[in-house]
């Protein structure tokens, strides 16, 4: 039987934990909003990129580029976008469960986020590179990852580049998903963080454009930019997922702590009353014995 | 007089949006000036300076690599980086340049090299634009 002092001490420590988890929940929700805003801020870029792509593909006709080349799949590279920190519920567990499914011998991993690289090291997977990205992903970070992936692909070190990330469906649901980045397939970009599946195909450009340089060449230089932007989108999705998963996990933790405090307080009061009753009994029985 | 709507967007934000009289772009095949009623054009730009002219005033911006879509009344610029000349912090850009150059001198893996090179180009572009303005 714990003493009242023990219970009081426990209540205090649970209260402190609740305070911390509550603060983390608030921080996560603010950061999630920021990630969503960042995705929205990129919308004009995506719209414009779509227009340029549509016009260029319409003008280029049959288009081949080293980055769109289909080869028999011998070696696969997977860009694994995980979080840097834990305390975000089952997010990384779910993500890494998908990562395990890739064949160990024919897959190299490119990790963004520390959890993924720790996992790769622990399971002795082949790790080609490790990247970091900040709370609000910068485009330069996405560009570095995308450039590296393109080099892997063009140098023949990988015949296909996939991206494994957590797709943000809504605040409560995030789903690990695999998308193929290379060989490149040009589809319309979507600048919204959402659970929508593969992007839709490009609409045809209505206007006739003059090209300088020629459409095929323009498309060739446009393609890497297009891929960079795609990777940027993936980073934003992953970040929004991470923050919302953390928010929910921390909310649960706070709720649990509150419930625990309630239970403990009840127990404490019961114990306190029992003690008082006991003391009263002792006093009265002592008085009776004396009298 | 007809005006052009100049829009400069990066993945992170819409940097510039205004009606202007004329735009000068750093095209890959040389500088080009775009006036209103230009025929529809798709082109590519490189690191350099975009100058928007409006009522005799000039608004310079430093931009990175990108693409431009020109229609009769609109110039839309799609780029990795765009900073208004007034917003360029010369000291910061200079520091960034030094940092990038120092990093280039070190032994770097290929992917690091590429990203540092890009960072260097960005800061150089900013410095160039800023210095030219002062003369």
Descriptive overview:
- The complex is a heterodimer of chains A (291) and B (135).
- Chain A is 57% helix and 13% strand.
- Chain A has two domains: 4-26 and 247-284, ATP synthase, gamma subunit, helix hairpin domain (Helix Hairpins), CATH 1.10.287.80; 38-246, ATP synthase, F1 complex, gamma subunit (Pyruvate Kinase, Chain: A, domain 1), CATH 3.40.1380.
- Chain A has a five-stranded mixed beta sheet, with helices on both faces.
- In chain A, strand 4 (160-168) and strand 5 (174-182) form a beta hairpin.
- Chain A has helices at 4-41, 43-60, 91-100, 114-122, 139-154, 215-290, and strands at 76-81, 107-112, 126-131, 160-168, 174-182, 210-212.
- Chain A has six helices and six strands, in the order H-H-E-H-E-H-E-H-E-E-E-H.
- Chain B has two helices and ten strands, in the order E-E-E-E-E-E-E-E-E-E-H-H.
- In chain B, the strands form two sheets. Chain B has a five-stranded mixed beta sheet, with no helix packed on it.
- Chain B is α+β, with helices and mostly antiparallel strands and 135 residues long.
- In chain B, strand 6 (48-54) and strand 7 (57-63) form a beta hairpin.
- In chain B, helix 1 (90-105) packs antiparallel against helix 2 (110-134).
- Chain B has two domains: 4-85, ATP Synthase, domain 1, CATH 2.60.15.10; 88-134.
- The A-B interface holds A 38, 41-42, 44-45, 48-49, 51-52, 55-56, 59, 129, 138-140, 142-144, 147-148, 151, 207-213, 215, 218, 221-222, 225, 228-229, 232 and B 7, 9-14, 27-29, 39-44, 65-67, 69, 71, 76, 78, 80, 110-111, 114-115, 118-119.
- Strand 6 (210-212) of chain A pairs parallel with strand 5 of chain B.
């Amino acid at each position: 039987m714990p003493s009242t002092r023990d219970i009081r001490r426990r209540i205090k420590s649970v209260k402190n934990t609740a305070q911390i988890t509550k603060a983390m929940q608030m921080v996560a929700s603010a950061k999630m909003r920021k990630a969503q805003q960042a995705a929205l801020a990129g919308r004009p870029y995506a719209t414009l990129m779509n227009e340029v792509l549509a016009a260029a593909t319409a003008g280029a006709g049959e288009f081949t580029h080293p980055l769109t080349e289909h080869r028999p799949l011998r070696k696969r590279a997977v860009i694994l976008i995980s979080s840097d920190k834990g305390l975000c519920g089952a997010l990384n567990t779910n993500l890494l469960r998908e990562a395990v499914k890739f064949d160990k011998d024919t897959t190299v991993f490119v990790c963004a986020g520390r959890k993924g690289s720790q996992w790769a090291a622990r399971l002795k997977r082949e790790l080609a590179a490790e990247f970091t990205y900040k709370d609000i992903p910068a485009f330069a970070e996405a560009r570095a990852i995308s450039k590296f992936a393109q080099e892997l692909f063009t140098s023949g070190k990988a015949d296909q580049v996939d991206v494994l990330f957590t797709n943000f469906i809504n605040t409560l649901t995030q789903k690990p998903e695999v998308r193929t980045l290379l060989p490149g397939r040009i589809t319309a970009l979507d600048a919204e963080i959402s659970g929508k599946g593969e992007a839709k195909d490009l609409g045809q450009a209505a206007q006739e454009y003059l090209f300088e340089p020629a459409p095929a060449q323009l498309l060739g230089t446009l393609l890497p930019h297009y891929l960079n932007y795609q990777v940027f989108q993936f980073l934003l999705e992953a970040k929004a997922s991470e923050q919302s998963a953390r928010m929910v996990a921390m909310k649960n933790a706070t709720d649990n702590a509150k419930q625990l405090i309630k239970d403990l307080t009840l127990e404490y009061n019961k114990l306190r009353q029992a003690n008082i009753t006991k003391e009263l009994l002792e006093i009265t029985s002592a008085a009776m014995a004396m009298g | 007089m007809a005006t052009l709507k100049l829009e400069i967007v990066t993945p992170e934000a819409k940097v510039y949006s205004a009606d202007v009289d004329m735009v000068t772009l750093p095209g890959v095949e040389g500088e080009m000036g775009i006036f209103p009623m230009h025929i529809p054009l798709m082109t590519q730009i490189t690191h350099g300076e975009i100058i928007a002219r409006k009522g005799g005033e000039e608004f310079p911006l430093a931009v990175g690599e990108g693409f431009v879509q020109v229609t009769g009344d609109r110039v839309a610029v799609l780029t990795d980086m765009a900073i208004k000349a007034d917003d360029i912090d010369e000291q910061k850009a200079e520091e960034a340049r030094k940092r990038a150059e120092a990093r280039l001198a070190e032994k770097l893996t290929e992917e690091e090299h590429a990203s540092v090179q890009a960072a260097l180009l960005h800061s150089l572009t900013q410095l160039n634009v800023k210095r030219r303005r002062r003369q």
